[in-house]
C-alpha cells in the first residue's frame, strides 16, 4: 500500500502550484474579502484546463479523476484560499450531474461556457422547510403541455445569486420517487432573486423565487425517479467540500507555523514554548489523518466505488479538522490571526460554514452510524397506527 502521490500526480501538483503562485498570489487577501464570484480566476483556470478535470473528454473535459481535482484544490488553496472555490465549482456538484445525465443539447448549451469560465452553475436544493430533510422539498413541477410549471422557493444556494443556470430540485409527485430536477436559467419569466444576505464567510446568498416558471422539455434534466441519481452526485460533491475544508486548515497551519518561527515573546521564539509545540503536533496529526481519509474516499470513488460512509467520514473529519486547526492557528497568532489583514481569520470563517454546507457534520455522523450498525436510523418519528 503506497501512501504517496504518483509521479504524474506530483508533476500535476507542481504545475498547479506554480500557476497559483504566478497568477493568484498577489490578490489572495483581496479575493478573500470580495463577496462576488471570481470570474476572472475562472477564466485563468480554464486556460490551464483546471475546470472540467473530472468531466469526460467527450464532453470537453480532461477525463481526469476526483483525486486529481482534490490535488488541484489543495495546490491552489496553499496560495489563494478563495480561488479554490472555483476548482470546486468547475469539477464537483452540479457540473458533474449535468455532464453525467444531461442531454446532448443541454451539454452543448451549458457545458462549453462552464468549462471556459464564462458561466456559473449552482444547485438549488435547500428550501425554507427542507434543509437536512431534503426530501421534504415542496418546489413543484406541474405538467403544462410538453413542459412544466415550476413554483416554489430555494434558500442558501451557493453562487445562486450569480449563477447563469440553476440545477433545481423539484417535485413531480409524492415521495422520494417523485423528485427530479430541471435547469432554470437566469432571466426566465417568473424567476426572481431576493435581497442578498451575507454569510459569516463573507459570501452572499439570496432567496430564489419560482412563480409559475415555464420549463420546456429541453430543460428537464431528471424526471421522476431521478432523486437517487442526483443524491449520488451530491455524495461525490462532499469530497470537494472536504478538500477545501482541509486545504484551508492547512493554509492557516502554514501561516501560524511561519509566525511561530519568527515571533518572539519573553525573549524566545514562540516555537520554543512546549505548550505551542504540542498544539502544532496535535494539528499535524489531525491534518495528516484527515488527508488520508480524504484520499481514500476520492480514490475509491474514482474506481466507481463511491461509498457514502467513506465520503461521510472524510467530510465530517476534514470539516472538523479544518475548523479546529484554523481556530488553533488564530489562537497562536493572537491579534494578528484575528485581524482581516491576515488570511487565518478568513480560513476560520470559511471552515465553519462547511461544517453545515453539503450535509452537516451531524448528518454525516448519522450516516456513519448506519454503516457501523448495518441498519437504517430514520430521523422522523415513527408513524402512529
SSE layout and pairings?
Elements: H1 7-23, H2 28-32, H3 39-47, H4 66-77, H5 84-89, H6 94-101, H7 104-115, E1 121-124, E2 140-144, E3 147-154, E4 165-171, E5 179-185, E6 191-193, E7 197-198, E8 204-205, E9 208-215, E10 220-222, H8 227-262, E11 264-265, E12 268-269, H9 274-302, H10 308-333, H11 335-338, H12 344-354, H13 361-373
Parallel strand pairs: 1-4
Antiparallel strand pairs: 2-3, 3-9, 4-5, 5-10, 6-9, 7-8, 11-12
Folded structure, characterized:
It contains 13 helices and twelve strands. It is of the alpha+beta class and 385 residues long. It has three domains: 7-115, Butyryl-Coa Dehydrogenase, subunit A, domain 1, CATH 1.10.540; 121-225, Butyryl-CoA Dehydrogenase, subunit A, domain 2; 228-373, Butyryl-CoA Dehydrogenase, subunit A, domain 3 (Up-down Bundle), CATH 1.20.140.10. The strands form four sheets. Strands 1-4-5-10 form a four-stranded mixed β-sheet, covered by helices on one side. α8 packs antiparallel against α12 (344-354). It is globular and about 80 Å long.
In short:
The protein has 13 helices and twelve strands. It is an alpha+beta fold and 385 residues long. It folds into three domains: 109 residues, Acyl-CoA dehydrogenase/oxidase, N-terminal domain (Butyryl-Coa Dehydrogenase, subunit A, domain 1); 105 residues, Butyryl-CoA Dehydrogenase, subunit A, domain 2 (Beta Barrel), CATH 2.40.110; 146 residues, Up-down Bundle (Butyryl-CoA Dehydrogenase, subunit A, domain 3).
Amino acid at each position: 500500500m503506497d501512501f504517496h502521490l504518483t509521479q504524474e500526480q506530483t508533476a500535476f501538483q507542481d504545475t498547479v502550484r506554480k500557476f497559483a503562485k504566478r497568477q493568484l498570489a498577489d490578490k489572495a487577501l483581496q479575493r478573500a474579502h470580495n463577496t462576488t464570484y471570481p470570474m476572472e480566476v475562472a477564466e485563468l483556470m480554464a486556460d490551464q484546463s483546471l475546470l472540467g478535470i473530472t468531466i469526460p473528454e467527450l464532453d470537453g473535459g480532461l477525463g481526469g479523476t476526483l483525486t486529481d481535482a482534490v490535488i488541484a484544490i489543495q495546490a491552489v488553496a496553499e496560495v489563494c484560499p478563495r480561488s479554490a472555490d472555483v476548482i470546486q465549482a468547475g469539477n464537483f456538484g452540479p457540473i458533474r450531474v449535468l455532464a453525467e445525465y444531461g442531454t446532448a443539447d443541454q451539454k452543448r448549451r451549458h457545458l462549453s461556457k462552464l468549462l471556459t469560465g464564462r458561466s456559473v452553475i449552482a444547485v438549488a436544493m435547500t428550501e425554507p422547510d427542507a434543509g437536512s430533510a431534503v426530501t421534504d422539498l415542496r418546489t413543484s413541477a406541474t405538467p403544462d403541455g410538453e413542459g412544466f410549471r415550476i413554483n416554489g422557493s430555494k434558500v442558501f444556494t451557493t453562487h445562486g445569486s450569480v449563477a447563469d443556470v440553476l440545477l433545481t430540485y423539484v417535485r413531480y409527485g409524492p415521495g422520494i420517487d417523485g423528485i427530479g430536477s430541471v435547469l432554470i436559467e437566469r432571466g426566465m419569466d417568473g424567476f426572481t432573486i431576493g435581497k442578498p444576505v451575507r454569510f459569516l464567510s463573507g459570501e452572499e446568498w439570496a432567496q430564489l423565487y419560482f412563480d409559475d416558471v415555464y420549463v420546456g422539455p429541453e430543460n428537464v434534466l431528471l424526471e421522476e425517479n431521478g432523486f437517487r441519481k442526483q443524491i449520488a452526485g451530491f455524495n461525490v460533491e462532499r469530497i470537494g467540500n472536504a478538500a477545501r475544508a482541509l486545504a484551508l486548515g492547512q493554509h492557516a497551519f502554514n501561516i501560524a507555523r511561519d509566525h511561530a518561527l519568527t515571533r518572539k515573546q519573553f525573549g524566545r521564539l514562540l516555537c520554543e514554548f512546549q505548550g505551542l509545540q504540542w498544539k502544532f503536533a496535535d494539528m499535524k496529526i489531525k491534518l495528516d489523518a484527515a488527508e488520508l481519509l480524504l484520499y481514500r474516499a476520492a480514490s475509491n470513488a474514482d474506481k466507481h466505488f463511491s461509498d457514502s460512509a467513506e465520503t461521510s467520514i472524510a467530510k465530517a473529519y476534514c470539516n472538523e479538522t479544518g475548523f479546529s486547526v484554523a481556530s488553533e492557528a488564530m489562537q497562536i497568532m493572537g491579534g494578528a490571526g484575528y485581524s482581516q489583514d491576515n488570511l487565518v481569520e478568513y480560513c476560520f470563517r470559511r471552515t465553519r460554514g462547511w461544517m453545515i454546507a453539503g450535509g452537516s457534520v451531524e448528518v454525516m455522523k448519522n450516516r456513519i452510524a448506519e454503516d457501523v450498525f448495518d441498519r437504517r436510523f430514520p430521523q422522523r418519528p415513527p408513524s402512529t397506527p
